[in-house]
Description:
2 copies of one chain form a homodimer.
Chain A: E1 13-21, H1 38-50, E2 57-58, E3 67-77, H2 86-91, E4 98-106, E5 116-127, E6 140-142, H3 148-156, E7 160-163, E8 178-189, E9 192-199, H4 206-218, H5 227-233, E10 248-255
Parallel strand pairs in A: 3-10, 5-6
Antiparallel strand pairs in A: 1-3, 1-4, 2-3, 5-9, 5-10, 7-8, 8-9
Helix pairs in contact in A: 3-4
Amino acid sequence: MQVDRHMTDREMRNIALRLAFDGTNYHGWQSQKGLATVSQKLEEAIAAVVGHPVKLIGCGRTDAGVHAKTYVANFKTSSSIPTERIPYAINTKLPDDISVYEAADVPEGFHAVFSGVRKEYTYLIYQSRTKDPFYSNRAMFYPQKLDVEKMRQAAARFIGKHDFKAFRTVGSNVKTTVRTVFSYDVEEDGEIVALRVSANGFLYNMARTLAGTLVYVSEGKIRPDEIDSIFESGDRRKAGPNLPACGLYMTGVWYDIPVFG
Amino acid sequence: MQVDRHMTDREMRNIALRLAFDGTNYHGWQSQKGLATVSQKLEEAIAAVVGHPVKLIGCGRTDAGVHAKTYVANFKTSSSIPTERIPYAINTKLPDDISVYEAADVPEGFHAVFSGVRKEYTYLIYQSRTKDPFYSNRAMFYPQKLDVEKMRQAAARFIGKHDFKAFRTVGSNVKTTVRTVFSYDVEEDGEIVALRVSANGFLYNMARTLAGTLVYVSEGKIRPDEIDSIFESGDRRKAGPNLPACGLYMTGVWYDIPVFG
């Protein structure tokens, strides 16, 4: 049986955007009353371009101060603006700390959160005796040298399907605290240590708590071989601290269909 | 004949600092009434550490929004604080966008400007169709690909002793507009083009006007072999534009004596 569709307006298009933002000056992604958020700036810019209000769905609710090098969001529109014109048109309405790189027409059912199969976050630590002004708000300052080798040993134990109950802040309701970490890389480049983690999903503050646990491992407060027992305990108090938001970047998101290029 | 010195206070020390700053939030280096400047923040921090007001002499009057990766300043103090403690002590009193890396005791006659023999500035251009939020305020956005080879041909003609009258903004009085450019390198690394120039001194806006002239060369508005005739004309209108402050970084300063390490 065919569904009878009545559309008073033109056919609605579903548009996905690939974008980046410096989160320093925003109260996170999600719209909050009276506070500047990334989604609010984008929704205003998109509305000005397509000529009607839009509801923008983002791939993750990043916290205040968290950044994104790669972030995907989608919205529905009746506008007939050519797809390839969309990034440029939106960017002219955006502040310099948010930028849209690409737009794509996606199937009606595409949803920036629910269609996601993998996300990647990178946590940056600036390890030096003295702060670098150019990493202010862009990395966590850490005044000693990290033990990267020991951090790698512990990080290897994050990989796989685990109950990450001990590595999150209790926040929004979730059905399960089981997630699969696909990869966890600890990369050192001079004063920068980058902690890069990909998973099928992240619990609230999970990326920052995994990073904080590795800092505790470096400091000898947690041994690499203790990670397994922290998983088993499910006890948040046994894991490391939730590191500051300014060091966290969303760096990738993948879908069940190819969205861009 | 020996000069009779009366000192009511202890012997004064002359301290040189090596520091860096992100100039985005400042009205330049030099103190101005009622406006936040880099020297004002530093003078307040130093005064809190040494226990008396200080006059800080900076190696250059950078404009509002201009950055420094390497900047040298000096001040006199009667404090007996150990030299190696000074950077740490000052940094605890500074905002995150200014950082002191090193301090050194220097001879009484050392002066951050007059003792200088060579300075280096680097101008960053972000060449891409789309802005990168992380280069906002940190590079000039340029929405096309630059002709780096042609820019190098023109830059080679800046090197040497010339009258740079055509390549400056008329500002503070100077005795002569003759300067010697020791090197001018045009480096391309992906989307970043870095224009690195060292000279025995810089006229007001000279680094930004040389950079703007190279952009005009890239755009075909000035031919590389026209640089010589611009020098001869001394006519500011024949050179390129003064590029935005946000792309400019002081990246080095050298003295007639070794100051650090």
